[in-house]
Write a structure and sequence with these properties.
This protein is α/β, with parallel strands linked by helices. The chain has two domains: 170 residues, P-loop containing nucleotide triphosphate hydrolases (Rossmann fold), CATH 3.40.50.300; 72 residues, Orthogonal Bundle (Conserved Hypothetical Protein Ylqf, Chain: A, domain 2). Helices cover 40% and strands 10% of the residues. It is built from twelve helices and six strands. A six-stranded mixed beta sheet has the order 3-2-1-4-6-5, with helices on both faces. α3 links the parallel β2 and β3. α8 crosses α9, α8 packs across α12 and α11 crosses α12. The radius of gyration is 21 Å and the shape is elongated. It starts with 12 loop residues before the first helix and ends in a 22-residue tail after the last helix. 38% of the residues are buried.
Amino acid sequence: MALDPIQWFPGHMAKTRRLIAECLSEVDIVLELLDARIPRSSKNPEILKLTAGKPKLTLLNKASLADPGASDAWLSHYEKTENKALLIDCVTGDGIAKIGDAVRGILSDKIARNEARGMTGRRLSAMIVGIPNVGKSSLINRLAGGKRAKVENRPGVTTAKQWVTTGIGLSLLDTPGVLWPKFDEKTVGENLAMTGAIRDGVLDVETLAMTLCLRLTDLYPALFFARYKLNPDETEGRDGYDLLELVGRKRGFLVSGGEVNMRRTAEMLLDEFRSGVIGRISLERPSREKTGGSAVC
């Protein structure tokens, strides 16, 4: 499945890439925000190319929605392969207080050089990058101590360059979310759509929910069964359509004739997954082999 994100966010992608490239020289460090539930799928390879050569801090956001065991595995993975990584959550505030010290640790050599030149206490600057709806504006507002950047729970809200001053000695440059122009891996597109990085409607929500049912049955059967009052006997051997229909029937989402309202069921399932109602779920782990259901780094 070859998907074209430019069709989802028309007119902004090329401009955003230019903005990142032009402003890179103005910042000391790049804060790359990933979705803790899908660190691999939410890691844009174009951002990696655009920000090459700059110190980087990887922030795994929405940690309260992710499986803690999977998140620990991702932290270990990034510690071995990249710059420092932190688990954070812009809704609960968890991990936010660690960002300032982590930035100063990464930039310790630069800070020492500044002090040697008599520029003690010089404010550092950071660029926040990530895909749409990963929480960049929410992070800025947390660090700034107030509502400084526009925040909505939908992708594609930030559309222009924004500098924000914080109380941790760091000036932040927000950038619009960037999805890569094209990717051919089906699982990446599904993961982005399931977590809300892609606007609903780009992929058929019923098909997406059917795929999510199969993923949950494979990865988190206990959580899935408990939430929707299912048991292994009635789900064994069922395809995604049958599973979604069973969920809708259990919830009583019926229309005339006793048929299940599949659209309503799909929207409910996706909403409950995205909000963490089903449980703390990660769709990717760094240690798993890539098999149809889950993608890994």
